[in-house]
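so my prof wants the structure for this chain in the C-alpha cells format not the other one, which i didnt know existed until like an hour ago. anyway here's the sequence
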Amino acid sequence: MTAKPKPLFLGIDTGGTYTDAVLWSEQGGPKGKVLAKAKALTTRHDLAVGISGAVDAVLEKSATDPAAIKLVSMSTTLATNALVEGQGGRVALIMIGFTEADLARDGLKTALGTDPVVFCQGGHDVHGNAARLDLAGLEAALPELGASVSGFAVCAYFATRNPAHELAARDLIREKTGLPVTASHELSAKLGGPRRALTTLLNARLISMIDRLVAATEGFLEARKIAAPLMVVRGDGALVSAAFARQRPIETILSGPAASLVGARHMTGLDNAMVSDIGGTTTDVAVLDGGRPRLDPEGATVGGFRTMVEAVAMRTFGLGGDSEVALEDGALNPKILLGPRRLVPLALTGMMHGVAVTSELERQLRAPNPGRMDGRFALRTGVPDRLAAGLTAPEAKLYDQIGTVPLAVDRLLASNAQNATLNRLVSRGLVHISGFTPSDAAHVLGKQANWDAATARLGAELFARKRDGRGQNIAASPEVISERVLVTLTRWSAEYILETAFAEDGLDGAATVAHALVQRAVDAHPGIARLSVALDRPVIGLGASAPLHYAGLAELVGNECVVPEDTDVANALGAVVGQVRVSAEARVSQPKEGLFRLASGQTVRDFTDEAKAIAAAEADVRAIVAERAKDAGTDNAEIEVATEFRVSTVEAQRMFIEAHVVAVASGRPRIAV
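here's what i got, hopefully its the right format
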C-alpha cells in the first residue's frame, strides 16, 4: 500500500529589505526537508508584489501544485523595524482616569510625540470599583480626530481589574468614527497603567501596517488558489492565526527574530547558543538555553521602549546591511557610524531608477567641494494617502514635492531647517531616504552582486570625499572606505553579541565593557593590561549577509560562529515548524473580608466563598484559553492551568490576599484537509 504523502508547508518572512519564502516537508528525516527557497525585494508600497515574487519562485523551483500546500505561516520584521525607526500611523491616545503627569512615566510622552491625547474622568480602583465616567470631552473631539488619525488607543486606570470604561470608550469611538480601536486590557493583564498605555499606543500605530501585510498575503494566496490557513509568528515564537495577529499586531514585534530562533534550533540542533540574526535594518541577538529561547519576563524592549508584550529576550540593535553610514561629528579622525536608520541602498535605487540616480551622483562628484547632502535621495514609500493625514503645512508642502522617482536631497531642501521636516516624513513611514550603506560597500568590493555595483561605487566615491577634522578626505578611494565600513559592521556585531551576553549575566555597563573588549581585541597596541573574552557557547549566525559580515566574528567573541546552510531563510523556515501557544489570566482579590472578587476576561463577579471563586476562575480561564486557541489556529490544544496565591499569616490564621490564575494552551496549527 502506497504511503500517503505528507503535507507541504509554505513559510514566508517579510523583512525590511527582502521577502523570503521556503517550501518545507515533514518528510526527509527528523528535520524534514527544504524543497525550495527564494528571495524577492520587499515592496512596501504593495507588499503583495514582494510576496508573490518569492513564493512564485519557490513554486516554480519545486514544480509544486499550489493545492498541495496545506499550511502557510509567516513571520515579519515590519513591526520591529517600524518601532526601531520610529515609524507608524498617527493615532489618538485616550487616557481614562489618568492625569497629564502620567505621560512622563515609562517613556509614554516620548512615544506619543506629536500625536493627540485626550484625558477623561473615570477608571477603577485595584478591586474593580468604578469612579464616575465622563466621555463628553472625547465625544466632542471625535469629529476632528476621526479625520486626522488612523486609529485609537484606549487605556483606563486599573482596566485589568475592570475593563468596563475601556469598553464604553471603544464602543463610542467605533460608532462615531469606524476606525480601529485598541483597548489596553485586550493586550495585557499586568498592572502599570502608563506602560500598558504605551503598549496600546504602539499596537494602534502598527495595525494598518500588519493589516496591509495580512491582506496582501491573503490576496496572493487566493489568486494562486492556495486554500490553506494563514498563520503569523508572534514575538515569543508561537504561531497565531492571521485574524488574531490583525487585532494584536504589537504581539508581532520580534516576530521575525523569534522565528529565526526556532529556525536556528531546527537547523543546527544546538541547544545552547548565542543567536545573531542580521537583516537589512536590524541585528537581533538572543540566547538559546536548553533548546528554547529565553523569554523576557518584563516584556519586550524595542526601539528604546519597554512594552508589556511577552516575547523572546531579544536585544534589537539598529545595525544591518542597509544601515545608514555616517561620520562622527567634530573629530580629527572621525569614526564610521552605522544606523540605526535604514536607508535604501544606492545600488538598489540605481538598479531600479538608472540614470535618474547616476546622473545626480556624477553631478555631485563634479563639484569642487563635497556637500552635506551628497549621495542622498528622497522618494515616496507608496503607502495609501490616508496615512498622510495630520501633516503640518511645511510637511505637506515638502511631501508634495517628493514623488516615486528619487529626488536628490540637495535639490529638494532649500535650508537646513527643512532637513528636520524631511526626517519627520521619514519617521511617519511616508518617505524613504536612499544613501550609502554597508550593502553598497559590499558591492564596491565585489562581495555582493545582486544590485547595481556602478551606482554603489559612485556613492562610495562621494562618501570618501568627506573631510576629517584636518580638512583631508577621509579615505583615498571607494575601496578603502568600503573596507572600513564592512570592518566596522563586523566589529559592532561582536560588541552587540557580547553586550547581550553580559546583560544576560546581569552585569552593569554591558555596552561599555563590550566596546572596550572588542577595542582591545582589534587594536594593534593592546596596552599594558591584556584583556580577552570568550563566550561559553557558539554563535549561530543568521541572515543572508551572515556569511559575509560574520566571517571574522569568531576571533572577536572567543568561540566558533556557525552559519547554517539555509541561514538566508531561517525566519521563513522557523515560521512553519513552530506551535500555537496562547494564554489567559484571571485574578481573585478580596475587597473586604468575606468577599472574593473574580476579574476574568471582560467580566467581574463576586463570591462569598474562596474555593468557589478559585474554581470559577480556573473554569473561566480554561474556557477563555480554549476559545483563544481556536481563534489562534489550533484544534488540538493541550491546556495547563496554574494558580498562584498571595496570602499572609496573622496570629496563626491564613489571610487570603489575591490569587493569580493562568491557563496556557498549545498545539500544532490546523492544516487544510
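also thought this was worth mentioning. The chain has a mean pLDDT of 88.
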